[in-house]
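Entry 14. Ran structure prediction on the chain below.
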Amino acid sequence: MDTRYIDAHCHIQFEQYDDDREEIVEQMREQGIAAIVVGCDYESSQKAVALAEKHEHLFASIGIHPTDTDELFDIDMFRMLAEHPKVVAIGECGLDFFRPETVDASEKERQRALFRAHIALAAELDKPLIIHARPSKGTQDAYQEVLQILADAKKQYPSLRGDVHFFVGGVAEAQQFIALDFTLSFTAVMTFARDYDEVIRTVPLTSILAETDSPYVAPVGRRGKRNDPLAVVDVTLKIVELRGDDPEIVRRTLVSSTEKLFGLG
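Output, structure tokens:
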């Protein structure tokens, strides 16, 4: 397949696609859209791997979301799952201080321990991380803690790298992540919100990836409906508009940056 776009983060293994998954995957193939199917727990990670195994243009990431499940991280089970050649990343993993009803010291420590376990596995297998970080309202607290954990980990694992999925931080946080060898991926939220314009215009194009986070956050014109990886085209076009760069250069750069990070070449 001639890859024209890559959705760096989607969940088309989820039940929302049970009725038409194969049709969407085929549409993606026809339009030259590859994707990384991201797990949030062991079951969804298994499903991501199975889907990637079946389709040349799909790849998988495996991990446990910081708050979507209370499942423990069995590193041996995930290590075995990661042996599959279509597993290209570890995650999504990280810190979420926005969703839990109670974000107390014990909850934060639970999330930190879970995140560090993912970092250790990613370093052991030399695979990039896919990071979920969501600060509490009006702060950058989760980003600040993730940055500190990554900076400490880089001392032990210099080749540690990855992508910060659904980035909602500011320019300062973006630059700190880039300095640690992490890219930033953006969703179709930017087709109807202006919160991300400055970051997208400021950071190097080579540090930006396009994602959909399907089935969530459909682009303008489809808001409130189920999203899908075909919307990565909308995301790419919005990045072009915000940066004012040549559309073909942006498209090629987004593809090559994603291929480089996840070893898809």
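The mean pLDDT is 96. Will compare against last week's run tomorrow.
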